[in-house]
What does this fold into?
Amino acid sequence: MGYGVTEAGGMISMLPRATSNSSIGRPLPDVQMKLSKGTAGEPLIKGLRTMKTYLNNEAATQAAFNKDGFYRTGDLAHMEGDEFIFDGRASSDSLKVEAALMALPYVVEVVVVAVPDPSCANQIAVVIRPRVAAVANVSLNGVRSDLAHSLPVYTLPTKLRVLGEEETLPRSVSEKINKKETLRRYFEGNSAKVEACAPPQIKKNKPQKAWDWAGLQ
It folds into this structure.
């Protein structure tokens, strides 16, 4: 069993006799690999073979790496013992939006969800818990402006819900954020506290790209 990433020069982890069919083994000696949330989350990698930048695309480069210089794979995995177990492909765009939001100095907690919209497949919606001192100043226009330096326009959020002091993000028994319940609680039905703007216009007859999870390209 093994796991490879083009941006890291090919194979980055391997285990000849894995204990699970979903195992991607252990990182090779020249690779550092960890998960974004400790024992679960997005595999993050760093090594001499890992690319340093996307040619002539600074925004894509910033979105591809976390603040510690680890490359964001866009996949999901968890640990079983000392083995990494592959859980599937995450929405790389949503992960990059969440990472960019968490890099903002006034954000404490965030989650990105897709709100169905017949005009553009989905709108990008975010729920933010800001620092107490910043609550009154957080706005959708401000967030979009702050993100515009590091994200392409089609990934900028078009809906924003700011959590109040007593409000929480719904979580599973394993303490993972429940995105379906977040969508239901904060964007379906009662949307009085949701700030929104119109999504970018797209041509209806234009084929949707396979990676365009927001339906905006």
